[in-house]
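Input sequence (410 aa), recorded before submission:
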Amino acid sequence: MTSTDVQSLLQFLTGPAKLPLRDAISKAKPLLADGLSSPDLIAKAPLDKLQQIFANEKAAKQVHSAAKRVTKSVASKKRSASTQDDASSSNNATENTPSISPPKRRKKNQTPSIDASDPQSWEAGLDLPAPVRDENLISITTITTNRAPLLLVFTIISLTYTHPWLPASSRFSLAQGLLDLTASSKAKSIGITRKDEHKNDIIEEGYKKIRVLSKEIPILRRWDTPSTSTSSFQTETNLQKQGQSHMLDKPPSDDVKATGINPGPSTSAAGDLSSSPDAPMSRARGRSSGSSTSSLYPNRPIYWSLSPSLLSQPPTASKLNPSALPIHLPHAAHSYLIRSFSQDKLPLLLGALHLLYESWVDTLDPADLDRKSWNWYCNVRPVVEDGPEGWGGKGPVNLKNILSLRKKAG
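Predicted structure, token format:
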């Protein structure tokens, strides 16, 4: 397996197969290991072989179909080039034209549609299984994973303790933003993607950012808290009418004029991680009481993670994003996380992470807790090969190593 093989396969997976970069990277190595290094070989492979690599049956069929289309297209071009320009060759060319299959019926999408008039609809379908805190069981458990979903779950749990006022939709959106930022940066540094493919990865100056696991994530201020009737959709629509599309946070004073809502304390790149002396106690009390975030933190701002690629494109509405906000959608991150871990291992992973953060939350302020989070992730993430060959590679993660990072008693 060479770097050229990896790059060629990634170009197919992110191009004709239309897989997200992170999914393409995670599946390139197992495909190459099974000898499926080209669209032609993937097209000839039985579908059940692909389903063993792609846990998602839909993704396996998507890649298989794309490989067949590419293979047929190449074969068709070869046939056309070899035919004579006469009636006989014209008939042959007609016969050799690939038939268009009838569109397949889509499976029913289980993800709830977002109701623009109900901000709470963003939170539907984002539940995670209850964490299992049995230390004995956690200590003997090993999971096999690649780095991306582990970083995603680390970020979700970290935000639960550093930004406890954020609803689940914000946490998943910010986690997806971090995942895409690190994946794009790594792909660029090792030459998996070309330089010109990153021209839409840069957010122009003026947008606010917050630190998530020590990385700066561009954000879009939200106003659709459960305790208010003003939704981000209404705000975005009003700003679009005023010619200020995608400018909710450029600058804060414009937000106040456009919406008439008091934004609360101003924040900088690290401002959300600053806290009063009793903040750790408040965060611990909030988690144990089960109170709503809106009542415990009435003046804390909430955010979406901005998507650089969507900012560079015309707004497109969908069931999950009817106002066409240029954001990382939380349900995509949730679906990826759930698919990445088995039903019996995910609760144990969540339990280990909660035990880790609970041991430190009353000792460290949110900024320090956030900084440690990146180091903790690096300490336990699976070891993979350097360079393109290691991207998407899986490795063991011993959950006892997460427990070992807890604050020592005394």
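Checked by second reader. The two ends are 51 Å apart (CA to CA).
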